[in-house]
Design a protein that fits this description.
The structure holds 2 protein chains of 2 kinds. Chain A is α+β, with helices and mostly antiparallel strands. Helix content of chain A is 34%, strand content 20%. Chain A has one domain: Ubiquitin-like (UB roll) (Roll), CATH 3.10.20. Chain A has a 4-stranded mixed beta sheet. The longest helix of chain A is centred in the first third of the chain and has 20 residues. In chain B, a hairpin with a 2-residue loop joins strand 2 and strand 3. The two termini of chain B are 44 Å apart. The longest helix of chain B has 18 residues. In chain B, helix 1 crosses helix 2, helix 4 crosses helix 8 and helix 7 crosses helix 8. In chain B, the strands form 4 sheets. In chain B, strands 2, 3, 6, 8, 9, 10, 11, 13 and 14 form a 9-stranded mixed beta sheet that branches. Chain B has a two-stranded parallel sheet with strand order 1-5. Chain B has a domain of 326 residues. Helix content of chain B is 32%, strand content 15%. The chains are: A alpha+beta, B alpha/beta.
């Protein structure tokens, strides 16, 4: 691991510690656009503090409205960049299973690929 | 992807339609005959995967030429598909162990009976454009058509109907391969490495079980044959055809697409839903509905309502048959290998009507698998349009004789899974069978879920209304907390 990354990780760990002590009822998550994704817009802010009981399905709805996407348009959330998650799973459940060592839960969003 | 047919060699069946279609605009003159030559030189099935043979310059040239054709036209020029004789091949929920002629014959009939829809050219101009072909852009629509055709076959034709006109299999080889998966038992005695059948051995099944049931009444056969022809004609490339490319492009316009655009598996699922909805008024298809899952969730209440509500119009059976389409994304940048087991499980189910997806940018219709490879029908083959309004139009170009496979790791993560349930009882058993197939491991979430009740019960309003925390209304608080929360958005 690069020294830079280690420092970044340490910084993020500190950040998580601070924010969790301030808001113990919220979970820190980072939501980024999938690298290959071109059709969906970028989020202006990628760090979220979410309540434990919020479900993935509800979060997806919020995300949909945030990037102004209609309900029938494809939008997928992937945990740690590759794992599918049930819509009924709660953030608390997903966080406890999939959080990164730095304390954040990482999620990526993507639509579907097009084919010719 | 300008996929024009590289040569008639791939699917030559002697039909007039298959003789050297050369798209003058795109295909350079020398390539077509060259491909056939290349195939002659590399007929041992190792062309695509094996390392190059440096002994002959000519061989290398031809190999490069065929590779070039492969790249340019999307259509794989690989010579033969190799099938393992020792592990089962799954096709549309049926298993085939290709170690005897009977089994290969059973597979040939099953594979050749699938409806194969490909790029076509010289069809009536698409409305709102000057296009008379879908070569190079319509492959996802074609894959969607094939999925729908499979659903309609289950809906309309006898369950194990086989087309008597099935072509002989081409470009296939059968070999005894060591299974790649270490978990598979390797203890089976290997009879021979030749490509001839081993007709002895413990795996041989009684021939009565492997034979396709023959129908005694010729009149019923003729009737089924008429249905088959009628079904294929629904996918004809004329504006009036209910599931033809003209109709699908038209219905895609509402979803922001136009002729010449590339389509995605989720979008095509919605187009198919609308096409079937629309065909209910026109054809004898008023007893079929399509349900498209939203956010990887099938709401059983919604399916029930769709099947019951719409059947009250016709007032007949009380329950409509349903095609359930589930658009999914099985990974981020590439397919997450943890989901291949699940895909295999789904393709093994009787109620599964295939998967529309593909390799990146290259749509394929997945119909089965063997070991670590998916079996598919490829729409990237440009054929001349067939006039389906003629009562006796030729059916040959709507069926494929060359089964192909590709490794799971090349599968694009975006796809739409298809299922069919004829009756209410079928739907219930579908739910439990599919749920079972989806729950491969306890640590992972299933790739999609069935939920009792209606989608609206789970919407965001329910969350906001039930919550006592006023900050649940995320969007306004977003700006409020901007300064106080160190760059975090509060939910």
């Amino acid at each position: 691991m690069l020294v830079e990354n280690i420092r970044d990780t340490t910084t993020r760990k500190d950040e998580v510690c601070t924010i969790r002590s301030k808001f113990p009822n919220k979970l820190p998550i980072i939501v980024e656009r999938c690298i290959r994704e071109r059709r969906l817009p970028l989020l202006d802010k990628t760090k979220f503090l979410v309540p434990h009981e919020l479900t993935i399905g509800q979060f997806l709805c919020l995300l949909r409205s945030k990037i102004a996407l209609e309900t029938s348009q494809a939008l997928y959330l992937l945990i740690s960049g590759k794992n599918i998650c049930s819509m009924t799973a709660s953030m608390g459940e997903v966080y406890s299973q999939h959080r990164d060592p730095d304390g954040f839960l990482y999620m990526t969003y993507a639509s579907q690929d097009m084919f010719g | 992807m300008n996929s024009v047919t590289p040569s008639s060699a791939q699917y030559a069946r002697g039909g007039a339609l298959h003789n050297d279609f050369v798209d003058g605009r795109r295909l350079p003159p020398p390539s077509s005959p060259r491909v056939a030559e290349a195939r002659g030189h590399f007929s041992n099935g190792s062309l695509a995967d094996g390392p190059g043979e440096p002994d002959e310059v000519d061989k290398l040239k031809l190999k490069l030429m065929s590779a070039w054709n492969n790249v340019k036209y999307g259509w794989s020029v690989k010579s033969k598909t190799l099938f393992n004789k020792t592990s089962p091949l799954i096709l549309m929920g049926q298993s085939y162990l290709l170690d005897s002629e009977e089994e290969v014959e059973r597979f040939r009939l099953a594979f050749g009976s699938r409806v194969w829809l490909t790029y076509r050219k010289e069809f009536p101009q698409l409305e709102g454009s000057n296009l008379t072909t879908d070569c190079g852009w319509g492959c996802m629509l074609r894959s969607g058509q094939m999925l729908l055709a499979q659903g309609l076959m289950l809906h309309r034709l006898p369950r194990h109907w086989r087309w008597p006109g099935c072509p002989q299999l081409a470009d296939v080889d059968f070999e005894v391969l060591r299974p790649r998966s270490p978990s598979r038992p390797v203890g089976i005695s290997i009879p021979s490495f030749s490509s001839t059948w081993s007709t002895s051995g413990p795996e041989k099944r009684p021939s009565s079980a492997t034979e396709v049931p023959k129908r005694a009444e010729p009149s019923r056969d003729a009737q089924t044959e008429d249905l088959h022809r009628r079904l294929v004609s629904w996918f004809g490339d004329v504006p009036a055809a209910p599931f033809g490319v003209h109709r699908l492009v038209e219905l895609g316009k509402d979803l922001g697409k136009k002729a010449g655009d590339w389509y995605g598996p989720s979008l095509v699922a919605h187009i198919l839903r609308k096409a079937v909805e629309k065909s209910a008024e026109l054809d004898d298809l008023d007893d079929l509905v399509v349900y498209v899952a939203q956010d990887c969730t099938v709401y059983k209440g919604d399916v029930t309502q769709l099947c019951e509500q719409s059947s009250s119009d016709s007032g007949s059976s009380g329950w409509k048959s349903v095609i359930i389409l589930v658009p999914v994304r099985l990974g981020g940048d590439s397919l997450n290998p943890s989901y291949t087991e699940c895909v295999k499980n789904l393709l093994t189910l009787d109620c599964c009507i295939g998967i529309i997806g593909g390799k990146p940018k290259h749509s394929l219709f997945f119909v089965g698998f063997q070991d670590e490879q998916l079996l598919y029908l490829d729409p990237h083959y440009c054929q001349l349009v067939v006039d389906v309004t003629q009562g006796d139009f030729p059916l040959e170009s709507f069926h494929c004789n060359s089964p192909r496979k590709m490794n799971f790791n090349r599968m694009d993560p975006s796809c739409t899974l298809g299922f069919y349930a004829q009756s209410k009882k079928d739907f219930e058993s579908l739910c439990s069978a599919v749920s079972g197939a989806l729950s491969v491991s306890k640590e992972r979430y299933p790739i999609f879920t069935f939920i009792e009740g209606r989608g609206q019960d789970y919407s965001l309003e329910g969350y906001s209304g039930g919550s006592t925390d006023p900050s649940a209304h995320i969007l306004p608080t977003d700006t409020m907390n901007r300064n106080s929360s160190e760059g975090f958005v509060f939910l």
